[in-house]
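TICKET: design request
STATUS: open
ATTACHED STRUCTURE:
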């Protein structure tokens, strides 16, 4: 996803993810869980803007389908486009928070 086109939001606008049906094409569960886990690690470390996105996509870790994978890759593209953003605590600045 390094060379992917950056996205401007963690999830596509109007994204509504639902459970996979019998006719949906399922994707590799382990790969999906790894992608969600990577996003979760970024969220816990310095990117709280991913909290809503993680809440949405992590619900489908047992039976991920193509729309779930597409939303997760969209979030990874957003992370790629905003790689220089996050929360920084610097002891030299005292209690000043930079975001």
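STATUS: resolved
RESOLUTION: sequence designed for all positions
ATTACHED SEQUENCE:
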């Amino acid at each position: 996803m390094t060379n992917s086109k950056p996205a401007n939001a963690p999830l596509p606008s109007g994204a509504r993810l639902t459970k996979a049906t019998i006719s949906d094409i399922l994707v590799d569960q382990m790969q999906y869980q790894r992608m969600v886990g990577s996003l979760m690690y970024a969220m816990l470390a310095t990117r709280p803007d991913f909290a809503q996105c993680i809440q949405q996509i992590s619900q489908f870790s047992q039976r991920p389908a193509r729309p779930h994978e597409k939303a997760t890759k969209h979030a990874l593209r957003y992370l790629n486009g905003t790689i220089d953003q996050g929360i920084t605590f610097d002891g030299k600045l005292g209690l000043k928070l930079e975001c």
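CLOSING REMARK: Helices lie at 29-45, 51-57, 66-81. Residues 5 and 43 are 21 Å apart (CA to CA).
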